[in-house]
Amino acid sequence: MQTSMYNALFGALTQEHRLANTANNLANVNTTGYKRETMAFRDVFIRFGHGMLDPISAINEKSLLPVPDDLAQNRIALTHIDFAQGSAKETGNPLDVALQGEGFFKVRTLEGDFYTRNGNFRLTPGGELVTGQGFPVLVDGGPVNLEPNTRIVIGPDGAIQANGEPVGNFDLVTFENPQVLEKLGQNMFRLRPGVQAAELPADNATVLQGYLEGANVEVVREMVNMIEAQRSFEAYQKVMHTAQEADQKVIREVASPR
Amino acid sequence: MMRSLWTAASGMQAMQMNIDVTSNNLANVSTTGFKKSRAEFEDLMYQTMKIAGAANAAGDRIPTGLQVGMGVRPVTVHKEFTTGSFQNTGNPLDLAIEGDGFFQVDVNGDFAYTRAGAFKLTNEGQVVTANGYALQPEFIVPQETQNIVVTENGRIVAMDKFGEELAGADIPLFTFVNPPGLNSIGRNMFLPTEASGDPIEGVPGEENVGTIAQGFLEGSNVDMVEEMVRLITGQRAYEINSKAIQTSDQMLQTATQLKR
Q1: What predicted TM-score, i.e. pTM, was given to this entire model?
Q2: Apex CA B18: angle with CA B14 and CA B23, to 5°?
Q3: Residues 100..139 of B with a Cβ closer than 8 Å to A: which?
Q4: What is the pLDDT of residues B184-200, one digit of tens each?
Q5: Residues of A in contact with B183 (CB under 8 A)
Q6: Quick one: residue B86, left, alpha or beta (phi over 0 = left, psi -120 to 50 = alpha)?
Q7: I need a surface site. Which of A215, A228, B60, B215 has the fewest CB within 10 A?
Q8: What's the start-to-end Cα distance of chain B, in Å?
């Protein structure tokens, strides 16, 4: 009885968690460069106690207990960032850049170098190229200053030209396995602490000037996820309810004085 | 459960902001020299439930951990200074800037900057904007003026009926390192801020500050179709976030029904 109650409880908690994740994906449906998150589940096997018994010790060599069985309890194992490409939206702004293919822009903050796919860049009063939050974007390994009143042209390889003069190339990097990155908020990613992974040049990435990359959230998929989470939650509630009813029945009927 | 409620609420708030910005753009679709605004969003912080690399019960290392996001927020609303379409008006004091520059006008002693070049004359002959702010440097047209000519390079000349020059001045154009950092004060005017940098004076036609076209007005750079699409996506995003709140609410209800 307790097992079914707790199984259902963990199941329901998992669904709650899943809804939180889906809600976050939906909340960020218009966030530039947002990458959706998925959850992976795994079941945790709990062996029935009688499965541990020595079969020989069974009375009359005939097993009184059912065949040992495994009970699955599901747990959320991990979240997984889906790095699939988002749709490109045209903005016409010369300092808006979208990445096509695998890769990230590098951004320098006080806490280290982070990565982003949000190419909504601007200039500081001093002419430095920065992100919307004011962090310098790295070009050839460092921040870059662009002269005022110049015509900025950014090539597909990330080369920046001001009035036809080369200024530098965006630091476009990728990783052998992008799952070494974790989300930081503010549309940025960083290496998971304690993970050693080498930055690779993002050779397959193409830079599009005048575009921004939208979120890769598919509304329909998330809605289906949400419905599924809700219905499973209801089902687990039913399980808990049934377990409770069975408990009551046991107390009432079995223990009643005849 | 509460997490998803607040996450979805942040989504609704963000989309509300998106629609506010879009409606202001649509309201100014016919405003001379208007520059559209754009809201940008970023994801909020993440709650780490399980640290990546931690060992699980079986002794395996979890490769990627478990993070749940907390929603979305607007990061900036910035102006987009793309050039609007030009309309031919034939009015000699309608000036449009082909390029990045701004006119400087005197707003009650402060210098403000505008791209709305629909200038008028006062009864004393001074060149002012439609709301009466004087174009800088001040230029007064003599009484006998028959014709006013503005060249591409910003030379404004008042001529009499014989084509003789009566008075002339040079209209400079001003640019900013970071025009999205300008402070919009309404009335098609902008004020410089620390974020925009100080105005840089330039001669029209030189160094990409733009040239002046006489007899033209710059329309708003609002693209109707784009704004309508933004309105639709904003509304739908608002809707799905409200659905997420509904779902959380129904799940909460389900949870409370556990105990009858």
Answers
A1: 0.77
A2: 145
A3: 100
A4: 888 888 999 888 888 88
A5: none
A6: beta
A7: B60
A8: 20
